[in-house]
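Incident log, entry 3
Record: Secreted protein (114 residues)
Problem: checksum mismatch between cached and fresh output.
Input:
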Amino acid sequence: MFRRAFWFTAGAAAGVWATTKVNRKLKQLTPESLAAQAADKAIETGHRLKEFALDVRAGMLQREAELEEALGLDAPADPALPGPRRTALGPAAPDRRVPPHPYPTHPHNRNEDH
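Fresh output:
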């Protein structure tokens, strides 16, 4: 008699546990829940991408500084060195060309309707 009561109670408890588990899983699979999960994953992925981009930028700036130091580009300009060269033509003359016509017409324009 006690064996039957034990197995009846064990079966009822297993049924309640299984029903609860199935109901939870069904609630997770509703469209609203799936949309919320997808949105959470998208936000999480965005944060990870932002962190990755910031790490890459920090590494890039560090490497740039190392290269500038190795090449001597970060040193102040030596006043004993000559300044930049001038071109043989001298300073550039102002541009005096006529501005283009706003609606150019070409006799062989393939885009015109004939």
